[in-house]
Amino acid sequence: MSATKLSAPEKTVPPRPITSSLGGRTLPKLLPPVLLVGAALVAAGALYLFDLWNPALWAIATAVGYAVVVTAFSTVVENGRKAKDRLVTSVVYVCFGIAMVPLVSLLWTVLSEGLIRLDGYFLTVSMNGVTPSMDAGGAYHAIVGTLMMTLMAAVISVPIGLMTAIYLVEYGRGRLKQAITFFVDVMTGIPSIVAGLFVVALWILLFGPGNTNGAAGAIALSVLMIPVVVRSCEEMLRLVPNELREASYALGVPKWLTVVKVVLPTAVAGITTGVMLALARVIGETAPLILTAGSSAVAINANLFEGQMMSLPVFIYSQVRMGGAINYERAWAGALTLIIIVMLLFLAARLVSRFLAPKTGR
Length: 362
Description:
- This protein has 362 residues and is mainly alpha-helical.
- It has two domains: 31-114, no CATH class; 124-356, MetI-like fold (Orthogonal Bundle).
- 71% of the residues lie in helices and 0% in strands.
- It contains 14 helices and no strands.
- It has helices at 31-49, 55-77, 80-114, 120-124, 140-171, 174-188, 192-207, 214-238, 242-250, 255-266, 268-283, 287-292, 312-322, 325-356.
- Helix 1 packs across helix 2, helix 5 packs across helix 13 (312-322) and helix 6 crosses helix 8.
- Belongs to the binding-protein-dependent transport system permease family. CysTW subfamily.
- One of its GO terms (cellular component) is plasma membrane.
- Keywords: Cell membrane, Membrane, Phosphate transport, Transmembrane, Transmembrane helix, Transport.
- InterPro entries: MetI-like, MetI-like_sf, Phosphate_PstA, Phosphate_transprt_permease.
């Protein structure tokens, strides 16, 4: 009996990794950054040589030079498809940079100018008894007015806007739905001054001329806020999968309870973000508040239904209108305060969304 000899299993050799090199028909990973730095140096040297130095012009020349050079390298080394991809990628990054320039410039200007006067004193005193030339006074009365009018506008707008969005998504049919959608679109684009004039006319009919107060300003803001809430909430409700609704209906749950227990909790994160966007849309309005809430209040007024009420946008406008270095410093500090309030609102919205959103983990 002959013994059979078992052969050892053949070893599989793993494929060699594809290296990024010029010989491999792919540009090295470090080449695009090197080309960008080279384009920046060449653009800076050319602008200095011709005495045309300007930061904006330098950025544009660098972006154009980099796009041309990286596309040429990719065409020679790689292929036409990769070259087009790199060209489009360069254009996208350039457009992103151009979009970021005004935002960064705005934030830097507001920070540098607003921090000169923004302190605890500015945030805790009003302009009561302060003349324009005095190096005193703050925006406490404007902060109180802004928060109270925005809160009242949200109390009016959020229920109306959310209920309208629920009707359009869950119940609306036919011409009534089309008419509501049309008028919401029209209201989204109306100028803010028109909303102020509308509330002024309404207030004159109800209470007589010259009766301006914070409640009128809040109603004017709610007119601008409602269509934004409707649009944002409608889009968030449409993103809820129909399978969730059908599963709820299959268990015998009525439609209204499905909306309350399934649809709204699923879309709560997006709805909260939409409401915050609507608040950010109206918190900086100036024209309707000048007409409805007044522009001459200098004392703290916590009553929305009596007397004029100052807001931060109107405070900034009034300080700039008076002119002078001190008033300009107050205006910049007020602008920075308004930005901080908006940032805090968005931070609160993120926290609310995180805690109220349905848990998807196991």
